[in-house]
């Protein structure tokens, strides 16, 4: 890639003259640019060659950090040595070829010299550098050739070049892979397919005819020495120079006509209306401002830029003047920063409503000048078409000027000499033109009307002539730069150093690509134009003319304020008052004219016509006069066709006025100023004083300052709606690290003038309840968000450009964010300009409570804080709420009516009882035929939706159902009621399902670019009430997609909205189809199969369900038959019963069977049953027999692996506990899923949803039930019924005392009904059970024996204790109980069993295995200090307690540490697993009836109502707990 270039004529050949063809001569282009001190940047000659420099890691500061070797590719990770370096992705991209320096690689820890041949070969493959075999003979230096590796993919890393990765198609075998490492500073790489010139090639004239040819030649190691000419060998490309179009308008405006002084200048320009490049370019762009005629010594030159510091009248004699850019000072492109824009420009303005683009940064060049030459230069923007102009300076008198002009004999010329005093004294300027001067052009005073264009030439040591120039660059981010046909203004400080005529070209503007990336042509220029001076600049008034004081101790123009700091707040007191003080003896006379340039220059627009002003005479003398009419009017500062704002206040002093001197000063008071809506922080104003005839000008800046905070709403803040609700990806109560995107448009410029004490900030304050507000990185949101891709006016520019605040240490940071306040502090010199728009994403922790949008406390606020130019204390805009878009709808919606903005964010609650299930059809789980998912041949079904709102949905509100992309509800969706039986009434205390009151159903695409109408927006016509028992359910018609992807199982969600489409509640997790979600257990690690339902490759057919009985709340046999597969299958299986069903946990009752094993009685030899799944520990011809049953999902049978033989029909028989009635808050459906935990559709084999028979239940105590069999196939569905009659008794827990209670899951609980244990102990009670979270309780025992305490170790294993030493045990979930010998006849009141933590499978008799927790030891306590201990295999035995008090409760915090409580404040503790018990001091003599410990240190004891104690040291001390 490196080498040399030669530019040759179109007719030339790169191989001419043995590879040294003649290059292009003349004035077509310059090489070696830019140059300092005139050394370089010269016209090419017949032997000019141009050096190429390849891009390397050394240049970018980015090195190879590590590599990852794969079977088919290699990943190369880059790391930056300096985080401010540009990332390698800016340069290396897909298609590029690069190599890695062989010697910067260590292979298996070895250097090149230590490697064996295989290691050298592997290293060469990675590096792309190979050695010619015939040169690899020591001690000769081997010759290398480069193959390199081509980039297949470039992936952006985290931040600024760190962790970026390149993928190259370099494969490695799995065995014997080498280990590559890269010692500091990392692997050095070189891009081999592209290179940059080491210099700028500057076109001097457009290329006429065919393009020049560019020839390339490589440079060997021994070549490239000084004086060596590189032969070229191939044409690398072509080159032509084109003149870019001019901008529509460009001019430099001066606030004063005084030359040789520091003033702010306004660079105004309008981009061309037809320039499509502004919208088409996708990469970074920039605006180049070239000052072509300056002198760093400040002795001469047209215009010299200065830094945008505070400007005092005393400059340059005192401190406080704007800093200057030194001759050798520069900032390169790679170091462009936002703070440099703030350092260079005091104002940036545009007519575009989104404000001036937030820049990537600014940078500037050194002071350059080209090598001397004696050529005429064609100039543009002149009245003399085709003219050539030369311009000489430092001409002492007219004769010298005449002589110099006469020496120019190249053409017939008119000679003209201009100097301030008629060329008779002082420096002069000689002009030469090659056309005839218009008669009368030269005025009496020697000035030149009209437009004259020239380039100044200075004289160097050799006598040549060349200009000084400097470039200042503003860099814009991708797709966020200047727009075509748009007006812009840049305000900066400058010094005019010569007296300039009007229309003199002062600077040159280029709009162009900033780099190669994203541009049709690298560094393409869109437009180029000269900006001419707006007025003629003249010498300031002399010592005999009037002047105001410029002494810091006596400012000539002093803004007065009603406070000690002389900073006037116009928002509080809209009266502009200033005192005038003369400069010693240079008096200011009556009728003198003051022009006050109201800063900020781009924000004021004074009312047209006269204003009200009065003069207040010198207050220390009653005889001094200043009375009569004070002229007051506004003036235009700029051409009205460009900018019609009137920002100049013209004051004519009264005719009756004592002279203003250094000791006599008057005050002017101007009232009723038309203030801007915008604001600004403390700033000065500029003032020009002239005589009565408007001559002899003086320019100064004010003493004192003024400021104004923006009008309410002018600094405008909004939240950008993102996420499904618009309130961020985590909108729910108590969620942490939610992300909320803020759009902020500044109503005033923030500027840190250089204070180390953080002189400028912007704050965003969140409502009460939020916490941990911070910004991660730059807070940069995803650019693909809908807000950033809208172009409603089709102008090629996005409506909402993407402005980001830099967090480079020199620009600013978010480090002082805390609590509910996020704060960005600007670093030294940085500015955020008036009307600029920035976006930043806040990361916050949500409140712990519901906070809806219309809550009056839900107010977001912003605040701007800055010192402005004031050095003492900061000023602040008052805390202002975000814009209320509900009350003020001036912000348009997106196409389709979707909102984009919000004035606040809601914090919503979770829909906890939401289910969404496929319909009970054969193919509801199936894919639609390929390409047919949107027509009548698609798989269509009615999915069932169930939910229970926590917040009322008003009439006109909405229920939203989100489906994955590919599912299609249609543009007019169909939401209909379920079958009537789902809405049946089962009793006052039973959940009630209500039909959704559907007014309309509209399909939407979510996101807008989705391929189908995958969202159903259902409008309701009546209120969705919220009661404890009311649920809502309906069916929704949908077409299945023709493909499956895992993301589909994460995309089913439900949402409720009010009538203004504001979210109220939603699904925190994907809506499941089998169980309600447990929010606490759901996170990103939740398996896919525990989320929503997913599609399968084929439908499962031929499955039959039959029940032995359908009596409510009864354990019954269910037979499932049959599964048939044409091929052998080894997969996973999940069978889900309807919600409310519970599979038996006694797995020894589970039986597989197939067509060779019908499940009949044993018939084989010896009575062996070949169908017994537990015979000999195996099953005949079938799969692993035992499913898993998780306590949290009792209606699911899960096989992680099941093997089925081809063409055999399989089925099984098992026990299931039926609910009290068929489910109403879910579908009455069984689901069979083969391959349920796979994410590959080929492995998701088959699935089926089949309707279950209904549980026979009425609303009375006698219920009819039926035994029913349902059979489904792909073509038919039949039902047969056989009636039986059973009776069951139900009850609600009476309002009596409960001795003990325990819930084993969210719905199933046990209780002992009786009297309180510290009262009459004879009143023990019966065991009660609930299956619906306590709404109904059922008596499980008759009351004999009478129980007092119970303990469920797991859902199947339990103990209960009671009167006369009764201890009963159940191992089937409480269905059956058996007595155990307790070794005591005392009343037992508390029981606790100590277990191992894991649930394991243990032997459970000859029939099979069950799930339970192993028991280590158990304890029961009771009257008269009774303690009995249980040991597995030995039963219960008494233990000495050391007390005679009644004991009530026992609990072990660990295997060895336990506690017992009882009468008279008794607390006992053991540390050795119950071998010995010791008393603890409780601090009470009351009866303690319950003890529980969180861990071995933290626990509680409870006594009579209201009595509770807590310990945090294992019971050593107990303190009252309230």
Provide an overview of this structure.
The chain has 1522 residues and is an all-beta fold. Helices cover 3% and strands 35% of the residues. It is built from six helices and 107 strands. Strands 19, 20, 21, 22, 23, 24, 30, 31, 32 and 33 form a ten-stranded mixed β-sheet that branches. Strands 11-7-15-4-1-17-18 form a seven-stranded antiparallel β-sheet. Strands 75, 76, 78, 79, 81, 84 and 85 form a seven-stranded antiparallel β-sheet that branches. The radius of gyration is 44 Å and the shape is globular. The model is unreliable at 158-162, 373-465, 884-897, 1158-1182, 1259-1295, 1316-1322 and 1398-1410 (pLDDT under 50).
Q: How many DSSP-defined strands?
A: 107
Largest sheet: 10 strands, mixed
Silhouette: globular
- The total of helices stands at 6
State the distance separating the first and last CA atoms: 79 Å
Oligomerization category of the chains in this entry: single chain
User: What low-confidence regions span 5 or more consecutive residues with pLDDT below 50?
Assistant: 158-162, 373-465, 884-897, 1158-1182, 1259-1295, 1316-1322, 1398-1410
- Average pLDDT value? 80
Class by SSE composition: mainly beta
Query: In percent terms, what proportion of residues is strand?
Result: 35-45%
Helical residue percent band: under 10%
Radius of gyration: 44 Å
């Amino acid at each position: 890639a490196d080498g040399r270039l030669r530019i040759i004529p179109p007719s030339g050949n790169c191989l001419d003259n043995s590879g040294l063809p003649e290059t292009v001569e003349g004035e077509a282009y310059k090489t070696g640019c830019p140059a300092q001190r005139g050394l370089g940047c010269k016209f090419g000659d017949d032997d000019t060659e141009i050096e190429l420099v390849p891009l390397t890691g050394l240049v970018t500061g980015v090195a190879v950090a590590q590599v990852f070797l794969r079977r088919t590719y290699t990943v190369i990770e880059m790391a930056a040595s300096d985080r401010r370096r540009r990332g390698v992705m800016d340069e290396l991209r897909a298609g590029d070829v690069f190599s890695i320096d062989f010697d910067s690689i260590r292979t298996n820890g070895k250097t090149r010299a230590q490697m064996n041949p295989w290691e050298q070969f592997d290293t060469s493959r990675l590096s792309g550098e190979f050695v010619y075999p015939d040169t690899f003979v020591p001690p000769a230096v081997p010759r290398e050739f480069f193959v390199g590796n081509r980039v297949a993919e470039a992936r952006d890393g985290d931040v600024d070049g760190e962790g970026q990765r390149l993928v190259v198609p370099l494969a490695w075998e799995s065995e014997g892979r080498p280990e590559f490492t890269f010692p500091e500073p990392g692997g050095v790489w070189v891009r081999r397919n592209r290179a940059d010139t080491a210099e700028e090639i500057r076109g001097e004239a457009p290329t006429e005819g065919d393009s020049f040819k560019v020839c390339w030649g490589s440079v060997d190691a021994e070549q490239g020495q000084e004086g060596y000419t590189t032969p070229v060998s191939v044409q690398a490309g072509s080159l032509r120079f084109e003149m870019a179009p001019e901008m529509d308008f460009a001019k430099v405006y001066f606030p004063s006509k005084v030359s040789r002084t520091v003033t702010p200048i306004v660079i105004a320009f309008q981009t061309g209306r037809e320039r499509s490049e502004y919208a088409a370019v996708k990469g970074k762009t920039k605006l180049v401002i070239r000052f072509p005629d300056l002198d760093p010594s400040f002795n001469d030159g047209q215009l010299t830029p200065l830094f945008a510091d505070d400007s005092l009248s005393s400059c340059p004699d005192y401190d406080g003047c704007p800093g200057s850019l030194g001759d050798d000072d520069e900032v390169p492109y790679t170091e462009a920063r936002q703070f440099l824009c703030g350092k260079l420009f005091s104002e940036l303005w545009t007519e575009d409503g989104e404000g001036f683009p937030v820049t990537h940064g600014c940078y500037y060049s050194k002071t350059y000048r080209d090598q001397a030459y004696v050529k005429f230069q064609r100039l543009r923007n002149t009245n003399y078409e085709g003219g050539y102009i030369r311009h000489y300076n430092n001409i002492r008198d007219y004769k010298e000027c005449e002589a110099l002009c006469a020496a120019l004999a190249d053409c017939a010329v008119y000679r003209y000499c201009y100097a301030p005093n008629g060329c008779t004294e002082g420096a002069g300027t000689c002009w030469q033109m090659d056309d005839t001067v218009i008669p009368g052009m030269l005025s009496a005073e020697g000035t030149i009307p009209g437009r004259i264009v020239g380039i100044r030439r200075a004289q160097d040591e050799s006598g040549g002539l060349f200009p000084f120039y400097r470039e200042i660059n503003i860099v814009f981010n991708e797709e966020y730069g200047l727009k075509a046909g748009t007006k812009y203004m840049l305000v900066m400080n400058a010094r005019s150093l010569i007296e300039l005529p009007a229309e003199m070209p002062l600077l040159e503007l280029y709009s162009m690509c900033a780099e190669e990336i994203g541009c049709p042509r690298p560094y393409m220029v869109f437009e180029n134009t000269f900006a001419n001076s707006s007025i003629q600049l003249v010498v300031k008034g002399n010592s005999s003319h009037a002047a105001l004081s410029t002494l810091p101790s006596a400012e000539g123009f002093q803004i007065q304020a009603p406070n000690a700091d002389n900073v006037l707040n116009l928002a509080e007191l809209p009266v502009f008052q200033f005192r005038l003080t003369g400069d010693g003896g240079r008096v200011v006379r009556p009728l003198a004219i003051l022009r006050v340039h109201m800063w900020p220059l781009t924000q004021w627009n004074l009312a047209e016509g006269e204003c009200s002003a009065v003069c207040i005479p010198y207050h220390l003398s009653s005889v001094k006069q200043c009375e009569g009419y004070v002229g007051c009017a506004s003036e235009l500062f700029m051409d009205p066709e460009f900018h019609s704002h009137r920002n100049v206040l013209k004051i004519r002093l009264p005719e009756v006025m004592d002279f203003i001197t250094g000791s006599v000063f008057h005050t002017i008071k101007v009232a009723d100023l038309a203030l801007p809506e915008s604001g600004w922080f403390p700033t000065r104003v500029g003032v020009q004083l002239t005589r009565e005839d408007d001559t002899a000008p003086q320019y100064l800046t004010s003493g004192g300052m003024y400021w104004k905070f923006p009008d309410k709403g002018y600094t405008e803040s909004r939240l950008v709606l993102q996420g499904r609700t618009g309130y961020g990806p985590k909108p729910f109560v108590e969620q942490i690290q939610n992300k909320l995107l803020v759009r902020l448009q500044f109503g005033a410029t923030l500027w840190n003038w250089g204070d180390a004490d953080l002189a400028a900030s912007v704050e965003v304050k969140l409502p009460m309840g939020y916490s941990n507000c911070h910004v991660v990185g730059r807070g940069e949101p995803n650019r693909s968000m809908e807000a950033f891709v809208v172009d409603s006016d089709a102008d090629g520019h996005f409506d909402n450009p993407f402005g980001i605040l830099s967090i480079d240490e020199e620009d600013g940071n978010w480090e002082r964010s805390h609590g509910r306040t996020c704060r960005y502090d600007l670093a030294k010199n940085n500015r955020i300009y008036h009307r600029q728009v920035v976006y930043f994403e806040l990361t916050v922790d949500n409140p712990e409570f519901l906070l809806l949008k219309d809550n009056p406390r839900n107010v977001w606020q912003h605040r701007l804080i800055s010192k402005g130019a004031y050095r003492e204390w900061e000023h602040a805009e008052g805390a202002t709420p975000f814009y209320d878009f509900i009350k003020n709808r001036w912000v348009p919606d997106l196409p389709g009516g979707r909102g984009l903005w919000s004035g606040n964010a809601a914090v919503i609650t979770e829909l906890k009882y939401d289910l969404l299930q496929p319909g009970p059809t054969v193919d509801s789980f199936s894919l639609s035929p390929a390409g047919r998912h949107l027509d009548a041949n698609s798989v269509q079904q009615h999915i069932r939706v169930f939910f229970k709102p926590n917040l009322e949905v008003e009439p006109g509100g909405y229920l939203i159902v989100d489906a994955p992309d590919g599912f299609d509800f249609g543009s007019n969706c169909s939401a209909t009621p379920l079958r009537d039986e789902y809405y049946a009434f089962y009793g006052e205390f039973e959940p009630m399902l209500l039909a959704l009151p559907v007014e309309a159903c509209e399909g939407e695409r979510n996101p807008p670019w989705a391929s189908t109408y995958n969202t159903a927006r259902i409008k309701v016509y009546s209120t969705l009430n919220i009661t404890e028992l009311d649920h809502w359910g309906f069916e929704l018609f949908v077409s299945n997609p023709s493909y499956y992807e895992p993301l589909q199982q994460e995309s089913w969600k439900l949402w409720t909205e009010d009538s203004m489409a504001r979210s109220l509640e939603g699904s925190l997790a994907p809506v499941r189809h089998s169980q309600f979600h447990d929010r606490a257990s759901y996170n990103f690690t939740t398996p896919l199969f525990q989320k929503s339902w997913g599609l399968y490759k084929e439908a499962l057919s031929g499955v039959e369900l039959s029940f032995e009985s359908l009596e409510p709340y009864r354990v019954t046999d269910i037979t499932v038959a049959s599964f048939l597969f044409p091929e052998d299958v080894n997969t996973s299986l999940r069978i889900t019963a309807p919600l409310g069903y519970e599979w038996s946990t006694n797995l020894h009752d589970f039986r597989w069977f197939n067509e060779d094993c019908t499940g009949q009685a044993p018939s084989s030899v010896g009575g062996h049953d070949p169908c017994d799944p537990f015979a000999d520990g195996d099953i005949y011809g079938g799969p692993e027999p035992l499913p898993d049953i998780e306590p949290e999902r009792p209606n699911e049978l899960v096989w992680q692996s099941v093997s089925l033989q081809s063409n055999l029909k399989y089925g099984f028989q098992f026990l299931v506990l039926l609910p009290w009635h068929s489910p109403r808050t879910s579908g009455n459906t069984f689901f069979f899923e083969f391959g349920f935990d796979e994410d590959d559709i080929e492995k998701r084999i088959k699935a089926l949803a089949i309707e279950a028979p209904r549980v026979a239940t009425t609303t009375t105590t006698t219920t009819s039930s039926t035994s029913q069999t349902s059979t489904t196939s792909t073509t038919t569905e039949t039902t047969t019924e056989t009636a039986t009659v059973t009776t069951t008794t139900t009850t609600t827990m009476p309002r009596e005392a409960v001795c003990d209670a325990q819930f084993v899951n969210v719905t199933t609980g046990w209780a002992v009904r009786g009297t309180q244990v510290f009262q009459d102990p004879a009143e023990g009670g019966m065991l009660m059970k609930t299956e619906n979270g306590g709404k109904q309780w059922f008596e499980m025992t008759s009351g004999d024996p009478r129980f007092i305490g119970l303990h469920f170790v797991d859902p199947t294993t339990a103990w209960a204790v009671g009167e006369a030493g009764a201890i009963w045990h159940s191992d089937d979930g409480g269905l059956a109980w058996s007595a155990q010998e307790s070794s005591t006849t005392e009343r037992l009141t508390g029981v606790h069993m100590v277990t191992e933590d894991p649930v394991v499978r243990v032997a459970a008799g000859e029939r099979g295995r069950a799930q339970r927790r192993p028991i280590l030891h158990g304890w029961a306590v009771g009257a008269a200090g009774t303690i009995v201990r249980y040991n597995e295999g030995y039963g219960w035995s008494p233990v000495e307690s050391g007390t005679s008090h009644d004991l009530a409760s026992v609990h072990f915090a660990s295997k060895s540490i336990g506690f017992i409580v009882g009468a008279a404040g008794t607390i006992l503790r053991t540390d050795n697993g119950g071998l010995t018990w010791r008393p603890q001091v409780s601090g009470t003599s009351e009866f303690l009836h319950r003890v529980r410990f969180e861990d071995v240190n933290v626990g509680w004891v409870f006594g009579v109502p209201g009595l509770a104690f807590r310990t945090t040291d294992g019971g050593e001390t107990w303190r009252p707990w309230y």
